[in-house]
Design goal:
Blueprint: H1 3-103, H2 108-114, H3 121-138, H4 144-207, E1 211-216, E2 226-231, H5 245-262, E3 267-271, H6 279-292, E4 297-301, H7 305-310, E5 313-321, E6 324-331, H8 332-339
Helix pairs in contact: 4-5
Keywords: Coiled coil
Organism: Vreelandella olivaria
Region (Disordered): 35-56
């Protein structure tokens, strides 16, 4: 074997050795990395074990606390059950006492309100014993008096209720009477003034002068009377009784028409109003009726020719055959047109 071949062989072996060494270096580095990771994992494992030990310790403490809570809960349940039994006993006792108070005719709320704040069971028990002793010393009691008292009390309550109702009704009636009196005074005064104004206006037109007015005979408008003061032209009479029959009729007619103007109606009927009047006064009466007939329809009964001439239509009863009456109606304007 030559030197050259040996050199080549050595070179090949060197190359092979280098190739074999490279994986060992890589494996060493990987091993170091794995060892480092192992150390980290072991550290985490130790921390986890410590945490697990802490949790186990906390779990044991929680279990002990739970057991203690269960024991406390059981005690609370027993106490609650005892409280419920006590409450039921107290409710039963209270119901029994309420029934006893109701039988005695007392109200719990009223007694509670009337009970002093410093009242105690001991003091009231002493008062009860003292009162019982006083009752015992009184001796025999008429038990029928309680029933009689209840009957009289019921009768008194009934009479008081009736008295209260009557008092209320009386007050209501008095208020209504006062209101009616007040309204009556106002309306009477207004009506009196309006009628008086109408009379003062119509009287001179009916008489062709003079004056007339109304006066009150008293101060109380609910009890006063009304007097008519009339003075035809040329007279100074002090009372209406000094007037003639015709003047009285015209004065009354003026008053009636003044009232009629205040409260008019669809029609007005006059029966022989012009009977005591002379022709001049009948003419004034007819003219007044004519003026007022613009707003009111007048029906008047008359036998006076002047009053008939003033009418728009005449109606009469005729008996052309014995025992047979017939109503005849004549229009004045129509009749005048026929005559023309």
């Amino acid at each position: 074997m030559t030197l050259k071949s040996v050199s080549l062989r050595i070179a090949e072996l060197e190359e092979s050795r280098e190739m074999l060494l490279e994986p060992d270096e890589l494996a060493g580095e990987e091993l170091e990395e794995l060892l480092h990771q192992r150390e980290q994992q072991e550290g985490r494992l130790n921390a986890t074990k410590q945490q697990a030990q802490g949790l186990a310790e906390q779990l044991r403490n929680d279990e002990l606390a739970r057991q203690q809570h269960e024991r406390n809960l059981e005690q609370s349940r027993e106490q609650l059950q005892q409280r419920r039994m006590d409450a039921q006993a107290l409710a039963l006792k209270a119901a029994t006492q309420d029934e006893q108070l109701a039988e005695l005719g007392h109200n719990v709320e009223t007694l509670t309100e009337q009970l002093p704040q410093e009242a105690t069971e001991t003091r009231w028990q002493e008062r009860l014993e003292s009162t019982t002793d006083k009752i015992r010393r009184l001796g025999a009691i008429n038990l029928a008096a309680i029933e009689e008292y209840d009957q009289q009390a019921e009768r008194r309550n009934y009479l008081e209720a009736q008295h209260a109702e009557l008092t209320e009704a009386l007050e209501t009636l008095e208020r209504a009477i006062k209101r009616i009196d007040q309204e009556t005074r106002v309306r009477f005064r207004e009506t009196f003034d309006q009628v008086n104004t109408g009379l003062q206006t119509l009287f001179p037109r009916v008489f062709g002068g003079g004056a007339a007015w109304l006066t009150l005979t008293g101060d109380d408008l609910l009890e006063t009377g009304v007097a008519i003061m009339a003075r035809p032209p040329g007279k100074k009479n002090s009372t209406i009784h000094l007037l003639s029959g015709g003047e009285k009729a015209l004065t009354a007619l003026s008053l009636v028409f003044a009232i009629f103007q205040l409260n008019p109606a669809p029609f007005c009927m006059l029966d022989e109003v012009d009977a005591p009047l002379d022709d001049a006064n009948v003419g004034r009466y007819a003219r007044l009726v004519k003026e007022m007939s613009e707003n009111v329809q007048f029906i008047y009964i008359t036998h006076n020719k002047i009053a008939m001439e003033a009418a728009e239509r005449l109606m009469g009863v005729t008996m052309q055959e014995p025992g047979v009456s017939r109503l005849v109606s004549v229009g004045i304007e129509e009749a005048a047109a026929l005559v023309d």
